[in-house]
Structures are given as C-alpha cells and as structure tokens.
Amino acid sequence: MARVVETAFQLPWKVSEDGVLVPCGMKVKSKVMLDVQPRLLKLARRLVKQAMKTDKFPDMVHVDTLVLDSIIAKPERPETADSPRISWWVKTSTLTKGKPVEIGLLANTYFERAYEDTVARGGGMCGVVQLHRDKGTQNFTMNLVLDIPDAAPRTEGRTVGLDFGMADALLASSDGQLFGAKALRQLRALDEKLADHDRWLAQRGLKRKGDREHERLNRRIRDTVKNEVGRIINRLALTHGPEQVRTLVVERLDFRGGGMSRRMNRLITRTGRAVLKRKLESIQESAGIQVEQVPAQYTSQECSGCGYTSKRNRPSRARYACRFCGKTMHADINAARVIQSRRSWQQPDNMGPKARTNTRQLLDQRFQHRWNRPMEG
C-alpha cells in the first residue's frame, strides 16, 4: 500500500479572466486554498539553501537604528497635561495582539520649535519613528521624524567659499572668518587623551575594540565634529539681510591636519565627511541654499590673488605667502577664496587617476593667459 504524505502548507489562488489559476492575496474573497506538494517544498528548500550560501541573512547584531512605520509606532499628543515633562506618546505594537504599549517622550524645546516651524510651512509629522541603540551605553532612544517641505531656492545673497583646513579652526570662509577654533582645541585635547589611553592598553596587551574608555573618547570626538559642523552651517544659513548666503562653494569633503595623529585624522575625516555631506544636503532642502562642489586639487597652493600655484607658497601650515605677487594671509582663508573663485571655472575632469594632472594643466593655462608667462615651481 502506497504511503500518502499530506502537507498542511497551503497557498491562495484565484481564477483569472482567462480561466487560469494565478497567485493572489489572502484578502481576495474568491480565493482557493491549494496544498503545496511535498516535492515542491523540497525543491524550494534546496533553492533557499543554495541562495543562502551566497546571500546570507543580514546580521541584526550590528544594526543600531530601526525605522518603525506608523503601523508599528504611532506618535500622539497627550490628551491631558497631567505630566508636563511628556510632550508626545508613541503607541507601540507588541507581540500580543490588541495589547499595545504607550511610550512617553520627554519634552524637547528644540524639537518643539522645529515642529511649529514645520507646521507653519505646511509640513507635519513623518509617518515613521526612529529607534536607536547607543553602542557605548546600550541605551535606547526614540526619535520623531519631521516631514519638512523643501524651501524655495534663494535668488539673492552672497556666494561664500568654505575650506576645511584645520590649521587654526575647523572651517574657514572666503570672507575671512574662521569657525570652530575652540572645537579644534577640544579635538586636539581629546586626541591626546585617546593616544595616552591607547598606549596604556597596548602596554598591557589589551585590545582597543570593546574598551569602554576608548569607545567613549571616540564618541566624544564624533559628537564634537557633528555639533560644531551643524552649528557653523546653521549660522551661515540663518544670516539675513546684506550678509545673506545664497550659494556655498565647497571642495572635496575632507578634514585632515590640525596637528593631530594619523588615526585621529582618519577618524575626523570619516566623521566630518559624512556629517558635512548630510548637513549640506539638509540645508539645501530646509533653507534653499545652493551648494556647489569644485575640484579640490591645489586649493592649498594656489594664490587667490594672482593664481600662481606652488607648494612653496606655504611656509607654514597656517601662513600663506605667494612667491609671485607677494600676497600674504591666513592659509585657510586663502584656500576658501580659491574655492570660491573656482565656481566660475570651466570644470576639468577631476575624477580618476588624472585628476591632479588635469587640474594642474588648467591652472597653468589660466596663469599663462593672465600674465603671459609660464608658471614655474
């Protein structure tokens, strides 16, 4: 007697207009539930097993931020003012059906102002909530997300070049301002603490990975860069009247130097690049400021006055002295003015292995056309 193998696994199907069975959803009233044959289940398992060899499931251990949609987490205003410290409640689904929990969010003055401004501009609350885990403290934070309408592009205002030189400050502008000098001093102090602690770990044969003090100092460095970059860009964006900024001209997003260790430079470069990129993108949407990028090659060597380019124009990290026209100024401010002037360039191909060569050729051509002599040195 043949053995009959039954399966409890079924899938919904419906009859199409052509009289053919096609897959459908569970909500279709005219659906037909059909068993999946054991041989097909076996084949499906083999396909999944083979696929898993090349494309494995993501390791959720390394995921620190989850985005929850409004089906899972829905923010609501408190119905009463019983707890003035709570400004929002987030109704969150649980594994028990019909048993959600409400999580209270502490009042945040900065967020409330941003929320009021967003509503006034026709925006509101976005349909998602962010749940973030801090790797160092293992604490969880829940953040609301605003749906902010894009601002109209500015039609009036100045064009300002920004240089990320880090000689005496984080950022320098083409109008002669240095931003973030105090933050740069803090970063140097943190670098010394981090280097001392890492030497202490090395002497005892301990690894940096997983060390709480090492992670705490790294976190402070990232937070310092993030907060200072945000403060500087916001300050430029909020300037109105004759000093209003219409366009920011930047070079390749880079943070290096400042008299810090090589490892510290790598850390700030990665952190600063990511933070500044996000901030510049957001400022275009929220304030209507245009952002333009220009080639970064030779911005620290080119003279903002005559265009003469030579590494000997930099007698020190913070000082610029042109060997052709004699112009002297702070090196980062000179670089910021060079960046601003390159906005009007016919841009060379500054990508790939020939980027420096292409930029240098254009600099030589511009200098010779202007002064009727070749550039030397």
From TrEMBL:
InterPro entries noted in UniProt: Cas12f1-like_TNB
Domain of life: Bacteria
Alphabetically ordered keywords of this record: DNA-binding
GO molecular function terms noted in the UniProt entry: DNA binding
Keyword Zinc-finger appears in the UniProt entry: no
Residue span, Cas12f1-like TNB domain: 276-339
NCBIfam families associated with the record: guided_TnpB (NF040570)
Name assigned to this protein: Transposase IS605 OrfB
Organism: Bifidobacterium cuniculi
